[in-house]
């Protein structure tokens, strides 16, 4: 989704030799002129070569860095774009080009955590480019827009369960009296079978012994956590993902509930994105509570801090 937002628009921003006042002749290497000629002739490899020579002569040559960055963009050379963007963001932090180059280069590398800050800076110094380049939509999709960075407390069952997540997210709940299924997600959901790209899902199974034949001696957290884990795995028979890898796991205890937490990388099909999720199975006598937070692996560095904050804010049933 994110890539389709921007691929049609990233080339709308580019270097033009008269975009900014030229540097004084005394500090402007002559190699810059050769770089401009090559760039205007669409010989981007030659433009990059001349621009590199220019910045070696004078590493304060803003125009040299600009041509270098945009020639690299045309050559799909993200590392050089990053180098030029880093320099320009320090030389002229109040202008768009450095922030733009960093935003697009990191985006092309799927390093969204690195892309967020330069994207935000671009939107401050040049709101028009922020919008026309598609970066405004990317920030919204990553919950990094002005509303998305704000948190809100979502709750259900009159506050028995609550969680802090981005204000722009959506809540959907289904409860049959025995099992509660609750979702707080980036995309709105109409049913608990809908697919979402980013979000959290919560399940509370009450009076589990009335639905399953569990002996009273086994009606404890240790047994119920293991039982539920095996039950879910059995339900997934026939839906084996292409890849499933446990990254880490640990035991946890929260407000009278105890169980285990783990991080998992998984891929439904070979041609689908790798997802990462953090999930937990918690139990107490007669009850099981689970939670899962997930997004694509490339977005994990963006959302993991929000997920950790959400988990620390989670209010479980008393």
Structure, explained:
- With 318 residues, this protein is α+β, with helices and mostly antiparallel strands.
- The protein contains eleven helices and nine strands.
- The strands form two sheets. A seven-stranded antiparallel β-sheet has the order 3-4-5-9-8-7-6. A two-stranded antiparallel ribbon has the order 1-2.
- The longest helix is centred in the last third of the chain and has 15 residues, at 221-235.
- The chain starts with a helix and ends in a 5-residue tail after the last helix.
- The relative contact order is 0.09.
According to DSSP, the number of beta strands is 9
How many strands, which pairing sense, and closed or not: the largest β-sheet? Answer: 7 strands, antiparallel
Q: What spatial form do the alpha-carbon principal axes imply?
A: elongated
The ordered string of helix (H) and strand (E) elements is HHHHHHHHHEEEEEHEEEEH
Helix content: 25-40%
What are the low-pLDDT stretches, counting only 5+ consecutive residues below 50? 4-12, 17-21
**Rg from alpha-carbon coordinates:** 26 Å
Mean pLDDT: 90
Which class do the helix and strand fractions yield?
A: alpha+beta
Report the span from N to C terminus. Answer: 39 Å
The proportion of strand residues reads 15-25%
In order across it, which strands form the biggest sheet? Answer: 3-4-5-9-8-7-6
Annotation field: number of helices: 11
